[in-house]
């Protein structure tokens, strides 16, 4: 830098018309270097810096947390966000990432992009799980992914930890099924799909294995299950058909629902969705999942919904 500064007057002499500008630049550069001492970077122990403002601690980086972090005035509070993930997920688009229609980065936004003040030394984003809250002492005890425990004091606390996916106590769900609530889970579904499509193409594959590898079972006929089924059928009839026509023909998608498809929606919408799915080849089954094994989904009551119309539920024997 010194060499550059030393050479500037010579450069300026060669380009006299730019002299005032260049001289001005030299002054600014020299002043910055002269009066701003190079501070040693603060260590994690020294952060966040205390400003005297009340500290707002936000637990979570989901919809509620992101909205609060976005809307809060960082001049009024020092902000600490604590969550196992550093980004907010735009969940309505998550289903599209399971088949590659969207890339994961298109549905996730880093918290610092939502609230740029989180980069300031008086604020912080900790990638950790809140484990306990002590309202009397106004502290939250947390644990990082690598097992480091620490506590954070607060003046105000916002608990935005949402809800967790439930296995409903069904054996095998944790071990053998995928949830779809965040980007990592969407990626693992996509990975499994890619793996199974590749494995199905191995020569000498037994027919039963081929059928199993190309069969996707979705449990839950709510909006997420229906969206995933729709995305899968799009993927099969577009990308997969072009890449591996045989495997596209062998693919099956089954949607299992214990009660009504899209139960909270208006009857005409439910009917519309059911018709669309059936037309695209999705097998709709009414059943309660009893167990999930490495190779099977065992249903307690299992009835295919032939010509499924929620108003005229026509249950027939299993196929
Ligand atoms: C695939 C999918 C599609 C959806 N589509 C729609 C839709 O189209 N329209 C709609 O209205 N809703 C939709 N939803 C529902 C919507 O996403 C939820 O209602 C919403 O996410 C709830 O927001 P939240 O902030 O309460 O919780 P979440 O968004 O679940 O956020 C919880 C946050 O808390 C964090 N956390 C969890 N435990 C801890 C802990 N111990 N310490 C610190 N942090 C923790 C999590 O990592 C996460 O960041 C969809 C959900 C899914 C899964």
Automatic annotation (TrEMBL):
Superkingdom of the source species: Eukaryota
Residues of the FAD/NAD(P)-binding domain: 55-299
Catalytic activity entry: a ubiquinone + NADH + H(+) = a ubiquinol + NAD(+)
InterPro entries in alphabetical order: FAD/NAD-bd_sf, FAD/NAD-binding_dom, NDH-2
Main location class: mitochondrion
Keyword field: FAD, Flavoprotein, Membrane, Mitochondrion, Mitochondrion inner membrane, NAD, Oxidoreductase
Protein name: FAD/NAD(P)-binding domain-containing protein
